[in-house]
Specification:
Radius of gyration: 19 Å
CATH topology: Porin
Strand order of the largest sheet: 1-2-3-4-5-6-7-8-9-10-11-12-13-14-15-16
Distance between the termini: 18 Å
Helix content: under 10%
Keywords: Signal
CATH class: Mainly Beta
Length: 288
Amino acid sequence: MKSGYLALTTGICSLSFCSLSLAAETCRAIPEAIKQSNSVILLGGTAKGPVKQVVMGEFGKNVNSQKRVLGQFDRCGQLVVADISYDKNDQNIVLAMEQHIFRVNHGWLAEYQISVKVQKENALVEVNNKQGNISYMIGTQGNIISASDSFMLMGKKGFTETTYDYDPQMRLSSSTSRGSDRLTNGEYRYRWSKVGLLLGSSSAQSKESYTYDAQQRELGMRMVNTTSNGTITTLDECQSWDKIGNCTLSYSHETEIAGQETLQRQLGTAYRFEYWDSEAEKDGEEKR
């Protein structure tokens, strides 16, 4: 699961209490394709096996950047709660993002806030502040069919509506967002392999692709983002996996080209998965 976010433990129940609650909960079994599609929408990635909890931390090696994700799932593979945070201080720009996602009767709710500040002379000036709530609605088969984002953007009320489409195998094929925040408007398209592996996604501003080995373990990811100043290319390579086949350590190399300037950034990401299947919870990694 490669996600561009990082999790907070603030506001989440203790792990022991959550484990008892999730174990006692009865859940609705849904097809694997729908579980993976919902995971892409909510967390930005997929994972293998009966995941109970995932913890992810990404840290910059030559850049001040930290991301964390903490997510917990029920026995049927549906997300119950997740906390995410992302902090970055780079090139006189300070970014801070927090998000809390939790399960509700109609699907999921997400509460978030984003702040972007720019260093000007001797002071930080906030150039973007967005706070909002996203309501994800599921259909009769358990797949997310729409999302409504109600927010305040620099003190002004706004709204974004997103719809999701699926192929005949109930794999997410596209999403379309329209609303008052032009930065989030647009369409994403998704590609899957015949065996249900996410191959990539694309929009007008970005393109992302994944590669896998013969054991269907994720080898790496390549992402290209087009910005107002140039392009950012990210190459992420997995270094180790657990026994289920989920990546536990990856290294990323990011190249940003802005005008005549080229910036290089290196980051490392560690993952820890816990599984409902007690046999799968045993430690052990398979090195490349």
